[in-house]
Structures are given as C-alpha cells and as structure tokens.
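Lay summary

Proteins are chains of building blocks that fold into shapes. Our project writes down both the chain and a compact code for its shape. Here are two examples, one after the other.
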Amino acid sequence: MMNPLNLLTTNGITISVRTAFVPEQSSIDNQNFVFAYEITIKNQNNFPVQLISRKWDITDSLLNKRHVTGIGVVGEQPIIQPNDKYTYISGCHFKTPFGKMLGFYKMVNLNNSEELTVVIPEFAMYCPHFMN
C-alpha cells in the first residue's frame, strides 16, 4: 500500500511521490529494508519538456548519506507534452527501517533548449513494523 502523496511544483512541472515498504524483498533480521516509490511528473507548461538527468540525496535514519546521479529515469529520458504526465516506479534500500530521499531533475524545454531544474520534494520511507 502506497503512503500519502508528497507534491511540489517547480518551473511549471509538478512532481508527486508515493512510497511503500516492500516486505517480500526485505529482511528485517538482516537489516535490509526495501522501499518502492512512484513518481508522477506533470508538465503544466505550454511547451514540451524532456527529462535529461536526475540527482538524488538519500539519507537513512543513522544519517548515512548516499548521492546518486544518472541519465534519465528507469532507463528512459521521457518527453512530456504540455498538460501530460509521466509516471514511473523505482526503489531504494536501507540498512535502517527509516530513510528519506530528495533531489532534482534536469529537464530541457524542447521549444527553445532552455535547461530547467525541477525539485523533487523530500519524501520519507518507513517500515510499518517500527511505527508506534
């Protein structure tokens, strides 16, 4: 079951994020906590954009940090037309039952080649077994 939605709009692009703990891929005894996240990118501009790259800052509950950069998302560099959206699902693992991610996408306005930075809102992931 996905957790509540996190939402943020930057440069006319709205990013929404939902998360879920994945118990069948996790091992609490081995301190391996796997989470899925679903991101929807909605282009509210009057021009098409292409997602070029991403940068993530990932932090677990012990404040261990990882930084991940890469081309596109899930092997794609999607083009998103005006008033259209693109949704993908990916995942993250932690050695702790809680963690968070935040970051940004680099996108390009396909009408004039202007680069846009789009902020991904911070979102938390947590194992429900450890919630009060």
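And here is the second example, written the same way.
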Amino acid sequence: MVKKTTRVNHPPSVQIPEGNRPVVAPIYQTVKFEFETVDDTLRTLSGEKPGFFYQRSSNPTTRALELTLAELQGRDDCLVCASGVGAIAQTLLALTKQGDHVLCFLESYGPTRYLIRRTLARFGVSHSMLSIADLDGIARTLAAQPTRLVIFESPTNPINRIADIAAITRLARAHGALTLLDNTFAGMHQHGQYPVDYYLHSLTKFASGHGDVMGGAVIAQAALIGALRPDFSNLGGVLDPHAAFLIQRGLKTYFARYRLQSANAQRIAECLSGHPAVERTHYPGLAAHPGHALAREQMSDFGAVVSFDLRAGAQCARRFAEALQLFAMTASLGATDSLVMPPQLLGSRDLSEQQQRQSGIAAGTVRLSIGLEDADDLIEDLQQALAAAQLP
C-alpha cells in the first residue's frame, strides 16, 4: 500500500466493464498518455501503432470531434485547433513558402485578408485580390502566374455574395492550385459535393452554437490533412479537450439550430426587403438576390446571416443598432442569440473606398446574425429600431 502523498498522484484506476459504455463520451482532460514499454511508445510515435502520446498532437476527445466534422463535410479527416482564425493561419502557413502566390478576394473575413496581405507577405508570399464574382479575372490571374492557393468564402462575409464553387475549383485545378473554402457561413453540411481541397470552419459559430467556446477546423481527405499535421502540431494552437467536448455537445443540436435559424432569417430578410428605410437586403434566400439561383443549386439551407443597407447611411445604422432590444451588438454569428454589427464595427477599414464599393459594403451596411428567438419578436424589434433610427 502506497502512502497517501503518493496515492493522490496515482489514484485507483476504474475500468468500465465490457459492454457497459457511457452514453456521453468522457472528457480526456490529460496532456500526456503513457505506454508500458519504450518500444510501444516509439511505434506509436512513428505511426506504426495507433495511440496517443501528447495532447498537442492528438487527444481522444479532440479526435472524436475531428472525425465527426470530417463526416459532416463529406471528407475523411480533420484537424481542430483553438480558434477559427487559428485554423486559417496554420493552414496558410503550412501550405505556403517563399515565392508562392495566393489568390484571395475582397469579400473575405478581415483577419484572412490580414494574414495574406501582412503575415504571409513578410515571408515572401505574394497575392492577388479580386472580387469573388470576377471569374474572368480569376482565369486570367491563374493563367498569368503560378498560384499555390485560391482561398475564398461562400456565402461571403458580410454581405452574402455567392461564389461559383464549381467554376472556381475547376479553374484552380486546371492551373494546379489548391482551393481553400472558408465554409463557416454555410456550415459543415453544405458544399461537400464540390472538389474543394480544404474546408475551413470557425467552430465558434454554428458548431458550438452557444457563444461560449472557441474552436477552428480544417477538413480534407486524409492525405491532404497529413500534409498539415506536422505544422499544426509544432505551431501549437491546440484545442483544449473540454472545449472539444462542448463543441461536440453543441453538434447534437446543430441541424435543428441551423435550420430554424435559416427559417427565421428568411422571414426577416423578406420583411426587411420591403421596408422603405432599407435600400438593399443581402440574403441568398431572396429571389431578388443576384446569387439566388446559384445558391439554390449549391445549398440546401441559406444560412442565418442577413445583411442590409440602410438608405440613410452610417449614423442611421448606428441609431438602429443601439435601439435594438433583442439583438446583442457584438461580433461573431451562429449562436442561439441574435446579434447585430453596425457598419462602424464591420471591420473593413483595411480596404480602400473603391475596394469597399467593389465588395458591396455600403455606408449603411448592417449585418444581423439570427438566433433562435421567436421570429415575430425579432421582426417587431427590428421594426421599432428602424422607426427609431429615422428620428432626427
């Protein structure tokens, strides 16, 4: 019998009997795993034998989440990390080197543009930036210069432009470029039918769904994920097992949430599109949306983000956001709570005025993320805030 000071560091082991499984998988909140022999340890480290050694490389809880996400996206492997931006950054760093060229787009998440235009540029990676609708420009750029990566979004942030995924992937493959699709707005259940090489996701959004945990993922076929694995392990942006558990738990209600949020968003978009204070509503579920036909072809659900342009501009949009009662004025999207981002917070300050116009962002552009509240209550709140915003 060991002494008590030893026992607290080596507690008794509890083995679950065969055929007696927990309904909810346990959280493996441990950094280290051990083997009984040096040979077994070395065989696992070399990949000859399955197993776990150190959390920075893998963990049973995070691995369960990776396999779930891969299946949802229609691929066979995945790597998760501590945030959506971490997934973008680590993937870009792992796939590029000095002298490479990246094709990106004005209609992109601000940190993605920063990583390409600032971080990668410091290491000698060049880029071209076009509009996502400029297929002729994409073709010309790929033909004129060897390109390592084409990174894009659909629907785009913040105004829901729809990328022609089939055309972009076809052009990229014809010129030997890898495609990276930030699929966060569309979710893990959409766009898997296209030959995209890497899917990027912020798990903070729809996967978690409750606004209380951060995470990111890159999903692809196993060989492509294998090319990333050493860099992901050494860059060290690890997802904590407890965060992985919370995201896995969030996925249990993913489809119910996404579909109800999409239905709420459709009703709200229809309401906003007919309001006299609104110049334009950006929601792919609207028949008047320029990408509606393409969205219907590519997507089964149109998402929970509704953006719109107020005729009266930025100060009206400020008053509108401040008058809302059920929408939290904050970043992010995809949570159970409805959120609003007025133009002052949309984060496109790195773009010139001309680039902002090309990207479709107007002085009065507002982005809504629709939650699970009753749609009638949300519409009533939006209408009262629109009325309040028009007052001098």
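What can we say about the second shape? The chain has a mean pLDDT of 96.
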